[in-house]
């Protein structure tokens, strides 16, 4: 299994839709996980941190399944402004740096 | 407000030029900073971990003599791309982490480097 692997995408959804992305990771000892959002030609911005079973922030919900080693990101009531690439991020084996997934591209249309 | 400041945001220069990129931690002292590179439609790849007052730790496959990192103070790390060539053209981004290893990183705006 790769250190971090994401749904290939792209996801094309209409406004108001609910969409979910999955991410699998290989390091079973990982304790912290992150979802970042990256807009085209911009730097990544932290969307959500996950330290326990999950986290919720408004329309965004992240869930962690340690047994299966995957993290999901659920976006409810999609907005046009949600269009971006979503990066799943986990610590490296040594726990000293972060490893980024290739990202899943979301396109929300009206 | 911004946590990390990166400068310059855009560089276009001739092949053979050396280019220095600065990364400043604005809100807190950072003993560790990270340098990433991202090619179009690819994921961020960690190049090196910059350690204040000591040598940087480079990832496998990254030439330390090509990408010089200096972390002389708790708020500033620099990446110098020496004798840059067209294949070095990329998006270079730095990040800082506040606190322990399990904390998220905050990124600078990135530097888009184009070598002609």
Outline:
With 110 residues, chain A is mainly beta.
Structural notes for this entry:
The complex is a heterodimer of chains A (110) and B (116). Chain A starts with a strand and ends with a strand. Chain A has no helices and eleven strands. Chain A is globular, with a radius of gyration of 13 Å. In chain A, strands 2, 4, 5, 9, 10 and 11 form a six-stranded mixed β-sheet that branches. By secondary structure, chain A is an all-beta fold. The mean pLDDT of chain A is 92. In chain B, strands 2, 4, 5, 6, 9, 10 and 11 form a seven-stranded mixed β-sheet that branches. Chain B starts with a strand and ends with a strand. The model of chain B has no long low-confidence stretch (mean pLDDT 91). Chain B is globular and about 40 Å long. By secondary structure, chain B is mainly β. Chain B has no helices and eleven strands. Classes of the chains: A mainly beta (110), B mainly beta (116).
Question: How do the helices and strands line up, and which of them pair or pack?
Answer:
The complex is a heterodimer of chains A (110) and B (116).
Chain A (H helix, E strand, L loop, with lengths): L3 E3 L4 E4 L4 E7 L7 E6 L5 E7 L3 E4 L2 E6 L4 E6 L8 E8 L6 E3 L3 E6 L1
Parallel strand pairs in A: 2-11
Antiparallel strand pairs in A: 1-3, 3-8, 4-5, 4-9, 6-7, 7-8, 9-10, 9-11
Chain B lengths: L3 E4 L2 E4 L5 E7 L6 E7 L6 E7 L5 E2 L8 E7 L2 E6 L8 E8 L7 E3 L3 E5 L1
Parallel strand pairs in B: 2-11
Antiparallel strand pairs in B: 1-3, 3-8, 4-5, 4-9, 5-6, 7-8, 9-10, 9-11
């Amino acid at each position: 299994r790769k250190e971090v692997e994401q749904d290939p995408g792209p996801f094309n959804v209409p406004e108001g839709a609910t969409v979910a992305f999955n991410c699998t990771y290989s390091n079973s000892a990982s304790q912290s996980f992150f979802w970042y959002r990256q807009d085209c030609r911009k730097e990544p911005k932290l969307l959500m941190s996950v330290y326990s079973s999950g986290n919720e922030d408004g329309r965004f919900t992240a869930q962690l399944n340690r047994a299966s080693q995957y993290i999901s990101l659920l976006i409810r009531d999609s907005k046009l402004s949600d269009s971006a690439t979503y990066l799943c991020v986990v610590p490296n084996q040594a726990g000293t740096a972060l490893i980024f997934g290739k990202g899943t591209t979301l396109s929300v249309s009206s | 407000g911004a946590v990390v400041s990166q400068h310059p945001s855009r560089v276009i220069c001739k092949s053979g030029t050396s280019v220095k990129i600065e990364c400043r931690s604005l809100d807190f002292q950072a003993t560790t900073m990270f340098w990433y590179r991202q090619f179009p439609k690819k994921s961020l790849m960690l190049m090196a971990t910059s350690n204040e007052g000591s040598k940087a730790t480079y990832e496998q496959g990254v030439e330390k003599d090509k990408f010089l990192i200096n972390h002389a103070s708790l708020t500033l790390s620099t990446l110098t791309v020496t004798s840059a060539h067209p294949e070095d053209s990329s998006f270079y981004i730095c990040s800082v982490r506040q606190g322990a290893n399990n904390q998220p990183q905050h990124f600078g705006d990135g530097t888009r480097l184009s070598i002609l």
